[in-house]
UniProtKB/TrEMBL annotation:
Originating organism: Sander lucioperca (Pike-perch)
Name this polypeptide is given: C-type lectin domain-containing protein
Keyword terms: Disulfide bond
C-type lectin domain segment(s): 38-144
């Protein structure tokens, strides 16, 4: 099943969020203007399969470039029944890269991550941040565009 989350739905669900994040309210006007559009895909795929699916059906896997993007993705993940969801970040010999080749250096790693080196070259997002994991497990994923 495919869920589409538009900025509008983010706005309506935003009202239900606890005000633990006052900074989010400050960012909301910016988000309405400039946030990326993300698609949560509730199909279980390896990272590589998810990348192909996103490229065939949307623009690419999700790039998270700013604090506003991170907040948008977190809102999507709050509604997922899975702890970990693929995002478009992967490790190659030169470091962490975005699937769409964005140069964005923004990161939301959980404390202690990334910790797997070459053994964990794909990134997952959760409501608590990102983690590097092996790429072959099947997970839901987020596309952009
Ligand atoms: Ca890890």
């Amino acid at each position: 099943m495919l869920f589409t989350y538009t900025i509008l739905s983010c706005f309506t669900s935003f009202c239900k969020l606890p005000l633990d994040s006052l900074f989010l309210s400050a960012l909301l006007p910016l988000s309405l203007g400039f946030s990326r559009k993300y698609q949560y895909v509730n199909l279980l795929k390896t990272w590589k399969e998810a990348q192909s699916y996103c490229r065939e059906n949307f623009a690419d896997m999700a790039t998270i470039e700013t604090v506003e993007d991170g907040a948008s993705v977190r809102k999507i993940l709050l509604q997922s029944t899975y702890t970990w969801t693929w995002i478009g970040l992967y490790l190659d010999l030169r470091g962490w890269k975005w699937s769409d080749q964005s140069k964005a250096s923004f990161r939301m790693w959980m404390s202690g991550e990334p910790n797997g080196g070459a053994g964990e070259p794909c990134a997952v997002g959760s409501v608590n941040g990102w983690n590097d994991v092996r790429c072959i497990d099947k997970r839901p994923f987020i596309c952009s565009g």
